[in-house]
Amino acid sequence: MFEERTAIKVSEAIKRVMQFCKKGEIEYINIDDAEGRYLGKAVVADHNIPSFDRTPLDGFAVISEDTASASPENPVRLEVIETVGAGNLAKREVKAGQAVRVMTGTMMPEECDAIAMFELTNEIEEDGKTWIELKRPFKKGDFVSFEGEETKKGDVLLEAGTKIHAGVIAVLATFGYSEVPVVKKPVIGIYATGTELLEVDEELVPGKIRNSNAYMIKTQVHQAGAEAVYYGQLADDFDQCYDAVKNTLDKVDALITTGGVSVGDFDYLPEIYQKLGANVLFNKIAMRPGSVTTVAEKDGKLLFGLSGNPSACFVGFELYTRPWVKTFLHSDKPFTEWVKGTLTEDFPKPNPFTRFIRSKISFEGGKITASPVGMDKSQVVTSLAHSDALVAVPGGTRGYKAGDEVDILLLFREGTKDPFKDPEKLRVKKSNDDA
Amino acid sequence: MFEERTAIKVSEAIKRVMQFCKKGEIEYINIDDAEGRYLGKAVVADHNIPSFDRTPLDGFAVISEDTASASPENPVRLEVIETVGAGNLAKREVKAGQAVRVMTGTMMPEECDAIAMFELTNEIEEDGKTWIELKRPFKKGDFVSFEGEETKKGDVLLEAGTKIHAGVIAVLATFGYSEVPVVKKPVIGIYATGTELLEVDEELVPGKIRNSNAYMIKTQVHQAGAEAVYYGQLADDFDQCYDAVKNTLDKVDALITTGGVSVGDFDYLPEIYQKLGANVLFNKIAMRPGSVTTVAEKDGKLLFGLSGNPSACFVGFELYTRPWVKTFLHSDKPFTEWVKGTLTEDFPKPNPFTRFIRSKISFEGGKITASPVGMDKSQVVTSLAHSDALVAVPGGTRGYKAGDEVDILLLFREGTKDPFKDPEKLRVKKSNDDA
Q1: Percent of chain A predicted with pLDDT > 90
Q2: Which pathway is recorded for this entry (chains A, B) (predicted)?
């Protein structure tokens, strides 16, 4: 019964999954619903910003020639003929010796070519008229915001695949995208398998545990930008599982199952993939946790067979499912960002395979550090709740010390172009390490 | 007309806002709706994890005493009397010389006290029975996961104020939280003021711009964890604005307005606060952008008067509104996390006040670096879309060089306990700097 499987590297497993990526279709949705979605098309400026010459502050629009001789000793006096607020247009023609009081954002009166801000003027009421005195000259263009100085018509402002957050929404609104072209979310079906699983509202009974993977994966699917459809729990029964998987495949863009991928007597997913005629991309990876993560392909759709162990399930999604989702969403940076950083404490466990350690990062003195969470067993169940990174240490090593440089996968960042590369053993440590 | 205002420090402004923080009430919602919400109560383990002794791998449950003499030369043979999968219980009593085939997650048969994994056993069919051969002894407890070894009943697993993400959901499901105690979201009303504002679906006309602040702020409100109610645009008309603000205050927990807080003729918010009898906490801050950010308090509710300039509006929300929201959500880390990092390029602008520069961070060789975005004017409008951090440089400085150490506010992180402190000028630079 015990089946031999060939473990492949993490980077090879990622590569095999990425061969079955596709890009989602585009749909138009209201800007009010666009938050958190991904742009389906690049956003190109269809007009200049500003779209007209305007004042960037409260002051007076003047004709610069009028101010040429102004000095503290010989101030120039101009008649204020009108006050214009942002959104309104000057109604009167401005002649030599005249000025217009204008508020921030107001379009420049046609005849004016400079702005004298409030702080540089004295206002005087005389002869039933309002005057300003200027004690310095202003040059043509002084303090004016010119049409197109921020953005020119035709500029590419945002690339397809950009996640729509607050700053992106501001750009979309500025350019009149009341309807936004976004990528349709991929629909990811989820089954949790295991006779030991109780629903979250069921009382504990001996031998059983509550199903936490389904809720966790649903949230990971959402956070990656996809739609999750949870189809429920399945007992370890071949026929039930086979029918469920078979009948769900045509309703989803990809299917995640949790559990049932190891070599136990009731781990039916391998047999199910076989009966379906699916192409198994891999069924063992040289990594911990999650070595039994299995991915298969049927008619171009991926079946992600994640481990039933919560941490392995979590890591499997982040490494293999997430980049598939991001590519579907037109991102060219689909991979979890990984950086170099420093371990804050010893990690004495030997690492027969590449190990992903649930960790929390911090920034001290300009450097990135990572602290493993759940080092003592009492925190295993909550370690995922406190992690925002995975420290990756190479296989074939005996342990790591505080201060060692390690690879860190940042779970909260949008992504990177480069897929994770399995770390190599540090040469300097080799003498202490396993073969 | 020109009004003198007294600028206060950023840290002082934050302090004044925080005096009017309150904590939101708790409501119970279905775990399916809990993603992105904030825990209203600490989560305490109400049972041990595991809740029973179990096998963490596929193998055979044995009585350790039976294996004491096992060696490669003299293997011990045990009769396999039953196979049990996870979620099921052993049905037969295990006697000396017997073993049970058990799958990962299965509860230990009562009489057994060690696990021999598949890889360490030979299976033999003989006399119509199934036997295993063990070539090594197993000690009491070998490879068993014991009740409570991950988490003990009574352990505090998650603090109130924790944002509910995938790992947190897993803990909630494990402990049977089908209904989750979360903090009711604060309701934040939004008005965009300005006669120059067009709706996002309106055609551009001279002198007008599309309203982008409302959409941006709505998204920032959501991202902070609050509910946004957008009440629409208001022209620069005192009575209209006054009525709108007055009539909205009792429907919301806080009210944001954008625009109308400077010293222009049609900047009515200061007068509105006065007529309302509101207590103005500050109306000028020694910062750029956003120096005119004004916050007032009326009957314990805050009125955030953010600037109409998009970047200033953005920064004002992040610095002053966000920590108020986070505190409402019971977080004890309400402030945007700020860290030391290195500037990647020159920032030659003089900084009369503390300046917040829209920036993008990256991690190179274990260090945090920040690159200002929108340095050239052509990117002003999109700089917010490309920023994930604000670099803060102290007032009274003439500019910064690539390689200088600066404070960086990380916009994408959950928060920190310490409010932002206005940076001091670097002593080494003082000779070159303005007073």
Answers
A1: 88
A2: Cofactor biosynthesis; molybdopterin biosynthesis
